[in-house]
């Protein structure tokens, strides 16, 4: 992608590590008891060989088709000093408000995340408000950027009740008052991989990419 100076795959799976190394990529085996991907990233970032990096970006394994714009946008929010944490989102169709597998985010005027939810946010109380609410519907893109200090603060916090209820790790720092900026990208990536059907769809899309059909 040309965004980072070093790319490392963090996993607790020997099978994944073997495949990664066979492909010529760098891999670190982590503990298996991490409650979230950010906790796993923090373990790797704390290793001495990575101590010189002040900005860390986490691209989640279940989002293999995340765009460069989302990664670069999240990273820029942090490296510019605007926010200690960064992520990304894309405009979404009204339909996602009824899809709990799609995470939504609402933001403040300065681009700071106010809340993430699997529920439909913003909630449209009146049907005649559709025209004004659609521009506010944003689908979260699963990428995070952190300053080293913010990453350490995040994982030092206990999992928050909101995080447990929604199954969304980003609610932990938000509940603690750590600001997270949201970079807007034009289009959401192909959906994440959470089910067998998602895997089949992603595999087919990957085959098309390799054959130049996508």
Short account of what is shown:
This protein has 214 residues and is an alpha/beta fold. The protein is built from eight helices and eight strands.
* Average predicted confidence as pLDDT: 89
CATH fold descriptor: Spore Coat Polysaccharide Biosynthesis Protein SpsA, Chain A
What is the radius of gyration computed over CA atoms, rounded to a whole number of angstroms? Answer: 18 Å
Classify the secondary structure makeup into a structural class. alpha/beta
**Largest sheet: spatial strand order:** 3-7-4-8
Q: Determine the CATH superfamily.
A: Spore Coat Polysaccharide Biosynthesis Protein SpsA, Chain A
Poorly predicted residue ranges: none
Separation of the first and last Cα atoms: 18 Å
Order of helices and strands: EHEHEHEEEHEHHHEH
Name the helicity range. 25-40%
Number of domains: 1
- Per CATH, the architecture is Alpha-Beta Complex
């Amino acid at each position: 992608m040309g965004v980072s100076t070093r790319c490392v795959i963090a996993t607790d799976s020997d099978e994944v590590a073997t495949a990664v190394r066979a492909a010529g990529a760098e891999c670190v085996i982590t503990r298996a008891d991490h409650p979230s991907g950010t906790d796993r990233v923090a373990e790797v970032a704390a290793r001495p060989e990575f101590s010189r990096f002040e900005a860390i970006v986490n691209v989640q394994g279940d989002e293999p088709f995340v765009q460069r714009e989302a990664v670069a946008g999240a990273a820029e929010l942090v490296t510019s000093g605007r926010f200690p944490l960064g992520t990304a989102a894309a405009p979404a169709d009204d339909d996602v408000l009824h899809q709990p597998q799609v995470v939504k985010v609402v933001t403040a005027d300065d681009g700071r995340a106010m809340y993430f939810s699997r529920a439909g946010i913003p909630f449209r109380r009146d049907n005649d408000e559709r025209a004004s609410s659609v521009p506010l519907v944003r689908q979260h893109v699963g990428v995070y950027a952190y300053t080293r200090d913010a990453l350490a603060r995040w994982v030092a916090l206990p999992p928050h009740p909101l995080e447990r209820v929604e199954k969304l790790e980003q609610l932990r720092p938000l509940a603690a008052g750590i600001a997270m900026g949201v970079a807007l990208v034009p289009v959401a990536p192909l959906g994440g991989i959470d089910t067998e059907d998602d895997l089949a769809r992603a595999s087919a899309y990957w085959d098309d990419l390799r054959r130049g059909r996508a």
